[in-house]
Structure formats: C-alpha cells, structure tokens
Amino acid sequence: MHTVLAGDIGGTKTRLALAEVSGSQVRLLCEVRYASRNFSSFELLLGDFLSGKEAPRNAAFGVAGPVDVRSVDVTNLPLRIDADALMKRYGFASCKLLNDLEATACGLPALCEDDLLTLQEGRANAVGNAAVIAPGTGLGEAGLFWDGKVHRPYATEGGHASFSPGSELEIELLRHLQKRYGHVSWERVVSGEGLVNIYEFLRDRSGLQLDGRDAAAISQAALAGSDEISVQTLDWFVRLLGADAGNLALKAMSWAGLYIGGGIPPKILPALEGGAFLEAFLNKGRMRHLLERMPVRVILNDRAALYGAALRAAEVA
C-alpha cells in the first residue's frame, strides 16, 4: 500500500488529496477543493494544502493542458507547473505531471459499475483500445492503447482540432464564430463556453431580446423546458458532442469503449439519454456498424482524474 499526493488541476477548480493506493483501488484520506484562480502560483496553492501535513514521497498531478516533458502551462488559466521545481521545494522522491484527460483515463480501473452510466452496451466482453472525451471548462480527449495485456493511457489535444460543421446551420455557426475567434475548434462548441456560444448564436439569429446566460443557467433552463432557445441549445450541444465523440471513437478504434467524462455530462443526463447523442455518434455512414459495437458510458464519479493521478503517483518505477 502506498500513500501518495494526487492532484486534479483544472481551469475552474483544483482538487488535491492524500490517498492510499492498493492495486487499482484508491482511498482518499484527505481532499481539499480550491478555486483555481484564487492563487497566483501552483506552489502557493500546494503549500496551503500541505500546511501542517507531512508531504508524501510520491506525487502526481493531472493538469488541464499539454505536458511538455516536465512542465505544463494550464490551458484557460495563467499558471505554470514545473515538476522538478516541486520536487526541490517539497522534497518529493518522484513528481509526475500528466494531462487531465490522461489522468481520467488512468483512473478508469478505480471506478466501479455505479460510477458509470451505459448509453450503449456495445459488444460483450469487448477488448481493444478505448477513448475518453470530456466537456467541461474546455474539451479534453484522451486515448487508451491496448498493448495486448493492459491499457496504456495517452494524452491528446483533440479538443482543439478544427470544428467540422455537418449541416447548413452548423456552417452558419462556424462563420459566426470565425468572426470572433478566427480558428474555431471543437472546444468552442462542445464545452461550457460552447454552450454559451451556441445559445448566443441562436438568440441573435431568432431576433429575441434575451439576457445573456452562463452554461449552468442554459442547461438548467433547457432541462426544465422553461426557455425554447436554451432547449434548442442543449439539444444541439448534445448532437455536437455525439458527433465529435464518434470522430474520436473512429480515430482511436475504441473497441473497448468510449467514455464521456468532464463536469457537464453528469448534469445533463436526461439530454444524453434522449437519443440525440447516440444518433450523432453513430452517424458515420459506412462506419456506423463499427460504432454500434463499441460500448459508450458516462463517467458519473467526478474524482476519476484524481484517482488516476493517485494511481500514477503509486507507480514509483
């Protein structure tokens, strides 16, 4: 059994925990959540967490951003994290940085059946690669390569790939967003920001005089059916998420499953279960039959990335 320090650092919130790891099982001993923007550096944030505690010898942090060997600049947040600097300051014997979606992928073995909601059963006892897509503050994507014995998670920045419209209305949305951003990625339409972008596009297109709303308000109004523009927004968002999830599933050949993580999906489960997501996921022409054989599951446990960081920290070799 190993006691480790694990972290899940996102653009909105950061979680740090001391955890006991035994095999693929993770038990959190102490967990604290922080608003990521409340600290000017990660060192100060970590120092606050470790105050009065003995730092474990091994640490790992899942970070929302591309890891460049031993450091990472947090996407959507002005923070830089350097593993070697952390080792020197806190005396860690090992300190690992991994992309937050890689951390989520690493955390899948620690989840139980109650932590997952199945949208598509797929093929029984499926073996092979898997993939994770996660809309939240941004849009994360990761793969799990099957080497014949175990899955080996790897990071991608697929959320920043170019958005590909599939209808005349989506082409109109693309042109609208190009005026604002220049390059339009999938993250611009499938994330919290994406919900707002779609809502504002539909609102302006309708000519209705409606106040601005954040992503949470849009989702809540849509699920309550209290605002038609919000209902249309969430339906479109779910279809776009399904379309990009299908893209990822084909690129990764995720026979063993496509997992949907992130902060948004657990909050919009009725919309995901309504059929629009799977309709868009499967709508890949001649490859539909492949996608129908892939399990599709929503990750309900929001600690998956924290578990993955803990499991990685425990790999001391």
What would you say this structure looks like, in words?
With 317 residues, this protein is α/β, with parallel strands linked by helices. The chain has eleven helices and 14 strands. Strands 9-14-13-10-11-12 form a six-stranded mixed beta sheet, sandwiched between helices. Strands 3-2-1-4-8 form a five-stranded mixed beta sheet, with helices on both faces. The chain has a three-stranded antiparallel beta sheet with strand order 5-6-7. A hairpin with a 2-residue loop joins strand 2 (13-22) and strand 3 (25-35). The protein is globular and about 60 Å long. The mean pLDDT is 94.
What is the fold's blueprint, element by element?
Elements: E1 2-9, E2 13-22, E3 25-35, H1 42-50, E4 58-63, E5 67-68, E6 71-73, E7 80-82, H2 83-90, E8 94-99, H3 100-107, E9 116-120, E10 130-135, E11 139-146, E12 151-155, H4 168-181, H5 192-206, H6 215-224, H7 228-252, E13 258-260, H8 269-272, H9 276-282, H10 288-291, E14 296-299, H11 304-314
Parallel strand pairs: 1-4, 4-8, 10-13, 13-14
Antiparallel strand pairs: 1-2, 2-3, 5-6, 6-7, 9-14, 10-11, 11-12
